[in-house]
Amino acid sequence: MAPLAIPEFSLKDKVLIVSGGAQGLGLVQAEALAEAGATVHVLDRQPEPDADSKYQKTAKRVKEEFGTSFTYHQVDVRTGVDKLNEIAEQIAQKHGRIDGLLAAAGIQQETSALDYTAADADRMLGVNITGCLMTAQAVARQMVKNKWTGSIVMIASMSGTIANRGLICPVYNASKAGVIQLGRNLAAEWGQHGIRVNTISPGYIVTEMVEKLFEQYPERKVEWPTHNMLNRLSQPHDYRGAAVFLLSDASSFMTGSDLRIDGGHAAW
Predict the structure, then answer these.
(1) What is the edge-to-edge ordering of all strands in the sheet holding 195-202?
(2) Which domain of life does the protein's organism represent (predicted)?
């Protein structure tokens, strides 16, 4: 006898938007949303994912195995505010609903505070905070306008709560603290419309970007796992369930919260 599914976790018939969903953590979480039944619209800044990219392979798998779809939209969350609103409106008109957003677009830069330029700081904050706000705003406008309830999830970081030992990224950490606080304030404003807003704070994730970092700093590959209680680094798939949980009815009474998933890094 097959195990019974928990219906609250189903995303069947839901229409969800994922920013930064063409690669890395965003792509893995977007795939999980589709696997749970959602129709997924992916936003990213590159003109079109390469034909042999992980995105294209995932989109094909989503169509063939899950019977739903990935639709790609090119937009820069920092500079394309008008386009963000156009895309959200188009999705709303096409499906007659938008059920949620996973805002995963973000950048990182490792530079000491004494060496950070104003231009680099503005770019970091522009993508990680302003871009996050503008994306959430575009989606929430459609939801409020059409009286649709739903869930917005924004990717923050454990670095929004702690200062990482041995990792010099002051503006990144400040930006992720801003995302956590932004989530609380959006939850306070939009709760009256039935829109929940939460954040996810991952620990160190082994992505392609981090693998390249380990080539430059091999000692980190050995040291970083010792900073948490599980003595290992996380993989993008470790956050699949969190995305499904927060965008599904399983978290229907959760808003204004930060879900920290860091292997116990900040619990020492």
Answers:
(1) 70-74, 39-44, 15-19, 100-103, 150-155, 195-202, 258-261
(2) Eukaryota
Q: Is residue 217 part of a domain?
A: no
- For the question of residue 83 being annotated catalytic, the response is no
CATH of residue 20's domain is 3.40.50.720
Check 14, 55, 72, 172 and give the catalytic one.
172
Please choose, from the candidates 213, 209, 210, 182, the residue with its C-alpha nearest in 3D space to the C-alpha of residue 198.
182
Query: Residue 139's domain spans which residues?
Result: 8-206+238-261
Domain count, the chain: 1
pLDDT tens by residue, 193-228: 999 999 999 999 998 878 888 999 999 999 999 999
In a domain, 267, yes or no: no
* 70-74/100-103 β-pairing: unpaired
Per-residue model confidence as pLDDT tens digits over 124-162? 999 999 999 999 999 999 999 999 999 999 999 999 999
On whether residue 227 sits in a domain, the answer given is no
Task: Say which of 14, 55, 72, 176 is annotated catalytic.
Answer: 176
Within a domain: 113? yes
Is residue 54 annotated as a catalytic residue, yes or no? no
